[in-house]
Structure formats: C-alpha cells, structure tokens
Write a structure and sequence with these properties.
Helix 1 packs antiparallel against helix 2, helix 4 packs across helix 5 and helix 6 packs across helix 8. Helices cover 38% and strands 22% of the residues. A six-stranded antiparallel beta sheet has the order 1-8-3-6-10-9, covered by helices on one side. Strand 9 and strand 10 form a beta hairpin. The protein is built from eight helices and ten strands.
Length: 266
C-alpha cells in the first residue's frame, strides 16, 4: 500500500552555499517525509524535548544528545515524538567537502541512517553552539558567509567525531583515495568510469560500487560537485565574468552550475 503522507519540500539552499541549516523548536504534530530523501547529507541534533525517526528497521526515539545523519538518497521520516510537546533541534542539509568523509563514519542503525549518542553534556553544549553558528553565518551578510558557515559545521563534525568510538577505525580505501586525489587535482579534465576504474585497479562495476559506498556519491556526481565548487570560488574571488569562468569546467557543468549558482531561497 502506498504511503499517503504528504511529501515534504526539498531544502532551499541559499545562493552559493553548500549548507542549508536551521535551529528550530518543533511542536507536537510536526513531521517530515521524503520518500527518496535528498541528494545531500542531513544532520539533526536533538537539544531538548524528544523526536522520532522512522526507518526500515523500525522507529527510533531521539532524546537530548542524540545526533542522526542521513546519507544521500535515504528516506526521511522524522518528527516530534507524539508523547512530547516539543523537539528542539539544530540541523543542516550539507554537501561535505571531500576531506570530511572520514568524519561521517558513524554507527549505522538502519540502511543509510547513522547515529551518535552523546552522554557528555559539555560536548552537547559545544556542538549545539557550533550548529547554531552555522545557521547564523549562512543567513548573515558577511562577504565570506559560506566559509564561516562551513567552518562552523566542520568544527561541529570534529567535535562529534571526538565522541565517536569508531573514529579511529575508519579510513578511505586507498584505491578510492588515489581516484579522489586525481579528481581533486584535475576536476576540469574529462574523466570516464573506465579510466577511473583502471586508475583504481578495479573492474568498472566494482569501482562504481566501492566509490558509491565510500563517498556516498557516484563518480560523476562527485566530479560535478568539484567543478561547481571551483567555478563558485572563481566567481567569489576573481573579477572573471560568469560566462567566462564557467565554460572552462565543461559544457555539462556550465548548465548545472548556472542552475546551482543562480538559485534563490524559497
């Protein structure tokens, strides 16, 4: 039987930002449902009250100090716990920098759904503060507001990582790390899955599967992210006109970058 809940809207990313954050106190009756999730990561940190999150493994209760993380494409099913009047949360949809991937190796409680439980109250306060700062910077008027917002988000992720028992047990597969290094160095080059598979020493199918598992994006999605990020940096830091700076990143990226960089909040 099809789910009859109303689909929640996609998050409005502010212009030029790789993060869409907020701090809210949700009341009883609030819920969000996205059958196919989003194409970004979503972090939700419970400050007080109680929430719930649904998954194929069942429902989980979210109490103060719980932090959940949705991988891209994971269904979103969460809201205020029906037995509580409020759910105070700081959250952020974000597109992680490549070097952040090792910070996102949290315990998985259901497919695509990760969770950390923080008992340390001092750490909770510090993480809540940093996540609120992400929201303040992203919605502010500073010239480098994305840099400030992403810096605060990285600090929050580092603090969360310090509370993660799996933090020292994970590293990127060296075959994927070789490919990431090549893509970061030459984002404008023409890369095919076959070429990248050869570089990794894997078959095309095995490479594609391992890359998706480690990076939570397909190789093409990761390349597009790098190209858009580089084009955005050019627009922000140089006087080069839009139509001059973007074509150097490839004709396909010209279209996707134009859409990504000219969007307005809704």
């Amino acid at each position: 039987m099809a789910d009859r809940r109303q689909e929640s809207p996609q998050p409005p990313f502010p212009p030029f930002l790789n993060v869409a954050p907020n701090y809210e106190v949700k009341t009883r009756g609030y819920y969000a449902w996205r059958e196919h999730g989003t194409n970004d990561w979503l972090l939700k940190f419970t400050i007080s009250g109680r929430g719930r999150v649904g998954s194929v493994a069942g429902d989980f209760t979210l109490e103060a100090g719980n932090c959940i993380l949705f991988r891209p494409g994971t269904p979103h099913d969460y809201g205020t716990h029906p037995a509580f009047r409020h759910w105070e949360i700081a959250w952020a949809h974000f597109r992680p920098r490549p070097e952040w991937l090792e910070l996102l190796n949290w315990p998985e409680i259901a497919p695509g759904l990760l969770q950390l439980n923080l008992a340390n109250k001092a750490a909770r306060r510090q993480i809540a503060y940093e996540l609120k700062q992400v929201n303040t910077y992203a919605r502010g008027n500073l010239p480098n507001r994305e840099a400030f917002a992403m810096n605060a988000l990285e600090r929050a992720l580092l603090l969360l990582n310090a509370e993660n028992s799996r933090a020292t047990a994970y590293s990127l597969d060296p075959r994927i790390e070789i490919v990431l290094t090549q893509l970061r160095a030459y984002p404008a080059a023409h890369h095919t899955r076959e070429q990248l598979a050869v570089l990794s020493g894997l078959s095309v199918s095995r490479f594609s599967h391992l890359f998706q598992a480690q990076v939570s994006q397909s190789p093409q999605e990761f390349i597009e992210f790098l190209r858009i990020d580089r084009a955005k940096n050019l627009l922000e830091t140089t006087p080069v006109p839009f139509r001059v700076s973007l074509p150097r990143w490839g004709s396909r990226t010209l279209c996707t970058s134009a859409a990504a960089l000219s969007c307005a909040p809704v």
